[in-house]
Amino acid sequence: MTSLSAKIQDVFDEPACDKNRGKDAKARKEGCSKPLTPGAAAGGCAFDGAKIVLQPITDVAHLVHAPLACEGNSWDNRGAASSGPTLWRTSFTTDLTELDVVMGQGERKLFKAIREIKEAYAPPAIFVYSTCVTALIGDDIEAVCKRAGEKFGLAVVPVNAPGLAGSKNLGNKLAAEALLEHVIGTVEPDDAGPYDINILGEFNLSGEFWLVKPLLDRLGIRVRACIPGDARYLDVASAHRARAAMVVCSTALINLARKMEERWDIPFFEGSFYGITDTSEALRNIAELLVKKGADPEILARTEALIAEQEAIAWKKLEAYRRRLQGKRVLLNTGGVKSWSVVHALMEIGIEIVGTSVKKSTLEDKERIKQILKDDNHMFEQMAARDLYAMLSEHKADIMLSGGRTQFIALKAKTPWLDINQERQHPYAGYDGMVELVRQIDLAIHNPIWSQVREPAPWDCQPAVKDEPPSTTSGTASLHALKKFAGTMADDFGEC
Amino acid sequence: MVRILSQTKSASVNPLKSSQPLGAALAFLGIDGAVPLFHGIQGCTSFALVLFVRHFKEAIPLQTTAMDEVTTILGGSDNLEEAILNLKTRTKPKLIGVCTTALVETRGEDCAGDIADIKLKHAEELAGTEIVLANTPDFSGALEEGWAKAVSAMIEGITRHGEQARQSKKIAILPGWHLTVADIEHLREMVESFGLQPVILPDVSGSLDGTVPDHWVPTTYGGTSIEDIRELGAAEHCIAIGEHMRHPAEVLQKMTGVPYVLFESLTGLEGADQFFSLLSAISGESVPASVRRRRAQLQDALLDGHFHFGGKKIAIAAEPDQLYQLATFFTGMGSEVAAAVATTDMSKVLGRVPAASIQIGDLSDLEALAGGADLLVTHSHGRQASQRLGIPLMRVGFPVFDRLGSQHKLSILYQGTRDLVFEVANMFQANRHAPTPEKLDPFRKQETQDGARSSPLTGH
């Protein structure tokens, strides 16, 4: 546990994190985990965070050393996509029983489990995750992994991020530490080149990185490793030979980027593939970093040409939605896809942002959002379920974009909702992704069910909700008749 | 006699189980105005919550005592106290259902003692809120055990002790966790059709049936009322459904003297016949015409459907009672249970499952045993095995996260059995293999006889 505590101290003191930089020495020492309120807490644990960061590595067997719940309640639940191997979707756990816990058989069972997996699946590596109970009973997974790795001749990587260590975000960072300590730099690639980059913190949800990768391909830029989305073990192991890196989800993997810069001189920048301007900016930054590291400067002009071409196409596609979405009010409530760049693109086609959560945004992001929205009142850290429900019930927004956690608040308030977090069905990255996001907003807002579900039953005596007039369909006449009927009822009976 | 094969692997691959606290939470979710509270790390709750939401497509009230490294060392009683008080002020629940997790159980915390202290210390503040504890470490049991423990705990903690004046029309019903919203709604209607008044504990049909409330409710809305649980002892009779409900039924009987009848399964003609005969006997009413009509419809469904079932090989993975329910249904239609996987060997019902053997294990065991089967039957996590084996998957139980409406699927009594017959027969028809000269070639058949499906001749 002491080495774990030291590691936690270390990742909390992140010089590349601007939140951390803004603190005084004392506050910095206290770390960034906020005490939770029992009975009023939401969110995952450190193990959850570690698994999220590592599990999309597709050809690795991920073995969770725990009683059933940690893995049994959570496997195969995220929408990362793989272009090949499927082993990462197979769930492995030691499923500790009472007897295992009482008799102290955890380490032996773990060792045997590693052997079984190696024999049955022959993966290039096995990642072993510690959890609360196995940490509490003192199982030394580092020792077991070392021994098993030597004995079976494969990489067995301990991921020491038990849930009780802290938050999901801490788990993200501890996972990165495991990669730095045991994986990255262990394999020398024989094909390193001047246009090799790493993308860090990209999860390839719904395969969305595949909307971006062709742009890089076009420029002759090779993704040495995308960590973790659609990654293979060998890509990650040889990631130290990339020339530059982009950090996509900075709150998750900033420590990985900074330490790779320190150790292997890989410069990085923080960027995003969400939104048009951000995507362009990311391509620009990648090209510039590569040139700084010795690539031919002609790539800069090619990059600009590609950006100009792709932006024009995207804006043209978006323009088609202006007529349908002008003046629509969007509430953004999530940690994920909500950079200022998405806000910017939505506003560009006439959408109004009535609120945005900035819980996970960087200071820089907040500054930009403030400038774009021209009103701080639209920014909030977090909104209670009850307030959110009230706001949506009063039709103060035409749609909420958020994660699954608040999905049913919107739906029960009979408000259109779009998933923009990890369970989402659609890819939103890159130029095409932004167009897809707007298309999905359009589809959600204009779905004909909204007028149906908001209409009270004909025998209930409230006046009908006069929302948008139903567009011309065959059922219009009878619908009008019904509305009239409902209106008469309300008039006749007055308040009831 | 069925052979029970115990698990020999050290690595569980593609778990079949959901955790025990999740089962307990599910039972508490069947109570009106309830909030289940996991005593453990916030991650335990977060995983369970996400899984519930993916299955029910509903906002689920579920909270955590949010233990951390320090409280794990010092003990979690303060967190438990703070969580209960916070829940009380924030959500004003009628019931807080505390489910312990592996962490606090491994520490060996005296949660019952802690809760007694908290109740005593804050008697005034906590008035109007029942607090019930289910000891549900993740390292043993699964949904069945967790659900049953929560129901027993509610009866022990809330139901009035001692013999009560019996209400002749009142029937206590203790359904197993595997009954859906539709099952429970149907059960109620059927019981009421005999002029009886059912009290169902827990009743997820009121709370998890996907309705749209007109204001924000932070607890469950609908389900068994606390008052009904308190007066459960006034029932004339108790009906328990599923072997795992025997313990709660016995607790009720011991406390209040209410006798119980246990149905291992209500699926299939026979089980339904017994059930309706019992209702008729208790109520003194003859079986209503609508029920008779449904029985006739089931008879007809059996006649129409049996063509598709005969000789089919079925591979089922489920918790014991659901395994029994489905295995008897399929064998009752002329199919064979070629592979059976269960979560535990502790249930007595396993000995009566119509299969040659039952493997205690996971979905990788199912995948290994199901080669050559015509149908896989398990929850949504069976989708990968189904894809790899090229065998259709019938989704049952929990979790079902990649299909809508699993809560509204009926699987019990005449009508539910009829629906099941149609569902399965339609799956077989949809996956029909057209005859080809190669498949029918008598010489080829002689070579490959062993590895073939139930019969290469029956293409349907």
Automatic annotation (TrEMBL), chain A:
Record bears the keyword Phosphoprotein: no
Alphabetical keyword list: Nitrogen fixation
CDD domains: Nitrogenase_NifE_I (cd01968)
GO process terms (BP): protein-containing complex assembly
Pathway: Cofactor biosynthesis; Fe-Mo cofactor biosynthesis
InterPro entries noted in UniProt: Nase/OxRdtase_comp1, Nase_comp1_CS, NifE, NifE-like
GO molecular function per UniProt: nitrogenase activity
Residue span, Nitrogenase/oxidoreductase component domain: 45-443
Function: This protein may play a role in the biosynthesis of the prosthetic group of nitrogenase (FeMo cofactor).
Family the entry assigns: Belongs to the NifD/NifK/NifE/NifN family.
PANTHER family: NITROGENASE IRON-MOLYBDENUM COFACTOR BIOSYNTHESIS PROTEIN NIFE
Protein name per UniProt: Nitrogenase iron-molybdenum cofactor biosynthesis protein NifE
Organism: Mesorhizobium kowhaii
UniProtKB/TrEMBL annotation, chain B:
UniProt domain Nitrogenase/oxidoreductase component: residue ranges: 19-428
A molecular-function term among this protein's GO annotations: oxidoreductase activity
Region (Disordered) residue spans: 433-460
Biased composition (Polar residues): 451-460
Annotated Gene3D superfamilies: 6.10.250.1090, Nitrogenase molybdenum iron protein domain
Pathway: Cofactor biosynthesis; Fe-Mo cofactor biosynthesis
Annotated GO biological process: nitrogen fixation; protein-containing complex assembly
Ranges of Basic and acidic residues composition bias in the record: 435-450
Pfam families the record matches: Oxidored_nitro
CDD domains: Nitrogenase_NifN_1 (cd01966)
Functional summary from the UniProt entry: This protein may play a role in the biosynthesis of the prosthetic group of nitrogenase (FeMo cofactor).
Family membership: Belongs to the NifD/NifK/NifE/NifN family.
Record PANTHER family: LIGHT-INDEPENDENT PROTOCHLOROPHYLLIDE REDUCTASE SUBUNIT B
Protein name: Nitrogenase iron-molybdenum cofactor biosynthesis protein NifN
